[in-house]
Specification:
alpha/beta; Rossmann fold; five-stranded parallel sheet; 6 helices
Length: 132
Amino acid sequence: MAVRVLDTNIVSYLMKSHSLADAYSPHLEGHTLAISFMTVGELYEGAYRAQWGRRKLARLASSLRGYVVIPSSPEICRCWGRVRADRAMQPISIDDAWIAATAIVHSCSLVTHNPHDFHGIDGLDIITHQQP
């Protein structure tokens, strides 16, 4: 069973039962779903900014247990540095660079709804849903 790393937007769609969650389900079924430690941070940042209460935070924590969370490592840190340096002329956000580095180091495809954020990164396989 192949592992797929999900971008934060995909996890958000799944948690909210957003209409795009259905569009991505064929890309997810039959795969182990993983997320970067950075995605966990981004989701909690959004929750705290929205001033979620205890119950919603508990639901977030419960949802996150459904994913393999890939922690940072020295290899991911080296890859992050390379990704940021390689994209100096077309800057990539710090968060997206961590997510990309996580997928690259673990040889996983990255499922995202924002492929342009990751365009041109060597060694990164991107899966996205193309709108008709």
